[in-house]
Automatic annotation (TrEMBL):
This is Vacuolar-sorting protein SNF8. It is found in: Cytoplasm; Endosome membrane. One of its GO terms (cellular component) is ESCRT II complex. One of its GO terms (biological process) is protein transport to vacuole involved in ubiquitin-dependent protein catabolic process via the multivesicular body sorting pathway. It is a peripheral membrane protein. Keywords: Cytoplasm, Endosome, Membrane, Protein transport, Transport. Its main location: cytoplasm. It comes from Rotaria sordida. SUPFAM superfamilies: Winged helix' DNA-binding domain. Belongs to the SNF8 family.
C-alpha cells in the first residue's frame, strides 16, 4: 500500500508540472487538483520553498491572494467592524485583481483555502460557518473570539442585517442580561451600529448590510 501511495505521489508531481498553468488559472481544475493532493496527504501550500510551490507556482497564487484578502479586510474594517461575508470578500478581491479572465478566476474555495493559511498568523482571521451549513459564510478579520451567543445572533440574520432586543428575546428565550452582554461586546468590537428611532432600538451589522447589497447584485 505504501508503494502504491508513493507511485501515486510521483504521478501527481508529474501531473502538476505538466498542467501547472491550468491549475493556476482554472477554478475547476485547481479544485480537482487540491482534492487529488488531499488523497495522498499532500498540501501544496504547506511550504513556500518546497517542490509544490516552486515547480507548480501555486504557492505564489495563494500568497498573492492572501495579500489581497488582507488588503480588502483592512480597507473595509472601519465600515463593517471586521466582519464581511464571503460573497462580498470574493467580489472585492476579484475587483482588486483586475478584469482579465485569469484574474477573475478565483472561487469561494480559493478564498477559504487562503484564509486557512492566514490562521498561522494568529486569531485575526476566522471563518464563521452558518448553522446547518445553510446561509452565508462570514469572515471575521479582527482579533477576538466570538462566543456561541454572538454566532447564534449572526446565524439568525440570514435574510436581514438588523435585530431588536425584543426579537432576540422571542427567538432565543434569553434573559435581558444575557442579550445585553452579547450586544455590548459586539458594539465595543465595532461589529454593531445602533439606530435609535425613538421607539425600538435597532442594531445593525454593517457587514451584513453590504452583504445584502452584494446578494442583490449591486456593486461594492
Amino acid at each position: 500500500l505504501a508503494k502504491q501511495f508513493e507511485t501515486f505521489r510521483d504521478n501527481l508531481e508529474s501531473f502538476a508540472e505538466k498542467h501547472k498553468n491550468e491549475i493556476k488559472k482554472d477554478i475547476a481544475f485547481r479544485r480537482q487538483f487540491q482534492e487529488m493532493c488531499a488523497t495522498v496527504g499532500v498540501d501544496p501550500l504547506a511550504s513556500s520553498k518546497g517542490f509544490w510551490s516552486q515547480a507548480l507556482g501555486v504557492g505564489d497564487f495563494y500568497y498573492e491572494l492572501t495579500v489581497q484578502i488582507v488588503e480588502v479586510c483592512v480597507a473595509t474594517s472601519s465600515q463593517n467592524g471586521g466582519l464581511i461575508s464571503l460573497d462580498e470578500l470574493l467580489l472585492r478581491v476579484r475587483k482588486a485583481r483586475g478584469k482579465s479572465r485569469s484574474a477573475q478566476d478565483v472561487s469561494h474555495d480559493d478564498i477559504l483555502r487562503a484564509i486557512k493559511k492566514l490562521r498561522i498568523l494568529g486569531d485575526g482571521f476566522t471563518v464563521i460557518e452558518p448553522a446547518n451549513n445553510q446561509g452565508r459564510i462570514l469572515i471575521q478579520s479582527i482579533p477576538g473570539e466570538l462566543s456561541m451567543d454572538h454566532t447564534a445572533i449572526l446565524n439568525s440574520l440570514q435574510t436581514r442585517s438588523s435585530f431588536t432586543v425584543e426579537q432576540l428575546r422571542e427567538q432565543f428565550k434569553w434573559s435581558d442580561e444575557r442579550i445585553k452582554t452579547a450586544i455590548d461586546f459586539m458594539i465595543k468590537e465595532g461589529l454593531l451600529w445602533i439606530d435609535n428611532n425613538g421607539r425600538n432600538i435597532e442594531y445593525y451589522f454593517p457587514g451584513l448590510f453590504t452583504a445584502q447589497r452584494v446578494t442583490a447584485g449591486e456593486s461594492v
